[in-house]
Amino acid sequence: MKRPLFWVVTVASTVALAGPVGAQAPEVKTWTPSQGDSIVEDTTPAPLVTKERPRLERVWIDVDPATVLPAVNTNKIYLNNCKPSGCIVKSGQASSIDGATYQGTWGINGTRTLTAFNASDAVWTQVVDCMKDVFSPFGVEITTTNPSPAPHFEIMIAGSPGDLGMSSGIGGVSPFSCQPYIPNSLVFDFQKVWGSDVEEICSTAAQEIAHSFALDHVTDPSDPLTYNPFSGRRRFKNAQVQCGSDCQGGQSPFGDPCSGITGQNHVCSCPNGTSILTNTQNSVQTISALFGTGTPTPPVVKITEPKLGAIVVAGFPVKADITDDNGVARAELYIDGAMTQMLGGAPWAFNAPASLGNGTHKVKVIGFDIFGTSASSEVSVVIGKPCGGDGDCPNGTDVCLGGRCVAGPDATGGLGVTCTSGPDCKSGECASDSTGAKHCVESCALGEGQCPDGFGCLEAGPDKGVCWPGYDDGTGGCCSANSQPAGPMFLGAGVCGMLLLRRRRRR
Ligand SMILES: [Zn+2]
């Protein structure tokens, strides 16, 4: 039983390239989707680009709740480019399961062929990579291998709406219901409407399959579920986002009144786990509730100021570069192991406490992405006069390393002492090589001869070196050549886990 809830679809396929307000008359160009996205990139200053997305369409279907299992029956999302000869779609309830003579069924008249994806192989590869990226927060498998007859969700990324007897200008189409998911849903992303525009093909695929998870359109232009134009990669938002962007004549597609400054806000079509309709939805929560979360990718964190071993004054500034594919949520500053400041947004610029006394201090910044996955960066700095030799250090067992005093080989947990994990070491870092030897290490600047006698500065990752016993770094301090480490790694250095060490090539 279908409810006849279709709605009008408009074609809007021009790009206006307008100059900055107040500058010379804006240059206006027209663009047709089949030519692909040809945004001018060499205009100075950057042009304001406005591209209205061709309207997408949801088709309401009544899903029998009895067929929707409490737990979703598959985590596979199949991207089908219908190559080489198109996909045959038969009339019937929307289904991704192949038959002997067809690749899917949908609410269309008769049996039709959706023509194959006709952009380049490079574009296809980028679309697949984009979908894997956009769905990386979730426990789904984006696949290009047909799972039929096993249950799966499917996005046919191919052809034109006319292939299926639909009006031109429909960018994509999904069945829609307020059940948590539509079993074996089949949705369409009409590639020829989008040409070779990877981001539009990708975000349309993401939007259509998300409609099969009871998600409505939203106003946020950077979310795949929007009709609003956006330049860049759209990602699902882990936040309560206003539903809308699809209003025409003051009404939502399902007839709810629209409001807001732009007249594009409306109540979300499905209650999504609550008992009443609300104005917002959290698509990350909704999709995660179905599939769980994916393998998290931690942010990339690098302290840019101060440098390792810098001589600083109390209250010194700490700056970090923090990036993440899904967004950085917050960052924390730790001094000598204690959290002293937290920031909820960029710029990631802190100040160490003004009360810090003289000596060597450990500065650590931990960045968290919006899913709570973290990564950190750490440097040691010195307040007060830098040491010029071991004799300048307050403890007899200290050694002077790059101007700062660190616990030496004669101290408990000192440099080079045998360890089993990070907490055994004053530095918090225990490293191991493939021979099984494990030693406490301290950071050093590569190629500067900072390590004390008997140690060399061994490369331990991008911009990171550690003083390693018996390693000859070529700066003259060391050593016997018979104990070169082979592929050592860090053990138990806090949240970082294991970090591979590479031998620095000697000059
Ligand atoms: Zn849509």
Number of helices: 4
Average pLDDT taken over every residue: 82
**Annotated CATH topology of the largest domain:** Collagenase (Catalytic Domain)
Strand content bin? 25-35%
- Which molecules are bound in this entry? zinc ion
The strand order across the widest sheet is: 3-10-11-9-4-8
- Rg over C-alpha atoms, rounded to the nearest angstrom: 29 Å
Low-confidence stretches: 1-51, 478-487, 492-507
Helix content: under 10%
- Please give the oligomerization state of what you see: single chain
CATH architecture of the largest domain: 3-Layer(aba) Sandwich
CATH class label of the largest domain? Alpha Beta
Major sheet summary line? 6 strands, mixed
Could you say how many structural domains there are in total?
A: 3
Number of strands: 29
Strand and helix map with partners:
Blueprint: E1 15-18, E2 48-51, E3 57-60, E4 76-80, E5 87-91, E6 104-106, E7 112-114, H1 121-134, E8 141-143, E9 153-157, E10 172-176, E11 186-189, H2 191-194, H3 198-211, E12 241-242, E13 280-281, H4 283-291, E14 300-305, E15 311-312, E16 317-323, E17 328-335, E18 338-343, E19 349-351, E20 359-369, E21 374-383, E22 398-401, E23 404-407, E24 430-432, E25 438-440, E26 443-444, E27 455-459, E28 465-469, E29 489-491
Helix pairs in contact: 1-3
